[in-house]
Amino acid sequence: MKVHLKKVGLPVLAFIAVISVWESIVRLGWISAFILPEPSKVWSSLIEDWPELWVALKTTTFSVGISFFLSVSIGICSAILLFTSEMVLLALYPYTIFFQTVPIIAIAPLLVIWFGYGVPAVVASAFIVSVFPVIASTLTGLLSADPALRDLFKLYRASRTQSMVKLYLPSSIPYIMNGLRISGGLAVIGAIVGEFLGGVGIGSVIDVARAQQRIDKVFASVLLASALGLLLIKSIDGVSYWLLRHWHPSEAKES
């Protein structure tokens, strides 16, 4: 109980302290409210602009959900393909690394040209930045299977499918979950970047509020986007705990 109280209480106390200092600094005039609005004004914006923010948040959540689902399914399947064929691995894996280094803000205008304004361009933007961590983490997990167990499966002449289902995929689950955590955060970032140009969602609200010099609304929108990313990552943490709590040290220690 004390451990749980510390885990909850200490972050809450730190949050209250930061908000209090932030509010005091702005009210005393040490920092201009135009640069850093008071938390109370951000809260007021959340309430007053909630109908618009809620519609935008639902659009962003939909785009993030679709892109994350595509990243997980296509990323894991791609990693399995790379793992099962050495020629495919040698031919294509360097390109996965290359595309991971391309700044999404640089190609976002192209996505709008290719997919048009709206959700399709946003989904494409979020997918591009979030799929490669899934591929890399899954492939690392598949390659990290216990050599002794691999020899055992060969000794008993297990088929490729049996080895994949009973050895390689289970042993790679911790790596996959780490990749999903990274991918989830990047999916939100990619969606917001796509929305700056795609004209929908929280990103569009941020862009319009910036042009209107509504800095409080910008902060409120950023807060909602951060909450969306946090919710997604915490959901992945829950799935990871459910899958690994009985056998993997990373989660078993929490039980």
Give a structural overview.
It is a single chain. The protein is mainly alpha-helical. It has two domains: 1-36; 37-252, Orthogonal Bundle (MetI-like fold). Helices cover 85% and strands 0% of the residues. It is built from eleven helices and no strands. α3 (50-84) crosses α9. The mean pLDDT is 87.
pLDDT averaged over residues: 87
Record field, number of beta strands: 0
Regions with little confidence, pLDDT below 50 for 5+ residues: none
The total number of structural domains is: 2
SS-derived structural category: mainly alpha
Portion in helices? over 70%
N-C termini distance: 13 Å
CATH architecture of the largest domain: Orthogonal Bundle
CATH-derived topology of the largest domain: MetI-like fold
Order of helices and strands: HHHHHHHHHHH
Shape: globular
TL;DR?
By secondary structure, this protein is mostly helical. It folds into two domains: 1-36; 37-252, MetI-like fold (Orthogonal Bundle).
Write the layout of secondary structure elements.
Layout lengths: L1 H26 L11 H10 L1 H35 L1 H15 L3 H12 L3 H25 L3 H9 L4 H39 L2 H11 L3 H30 L4 H4 L3
Defining traits:
single chain, 255 residues, mainly alpha, MetI-like fold, 2 domains, 11 helices, globular
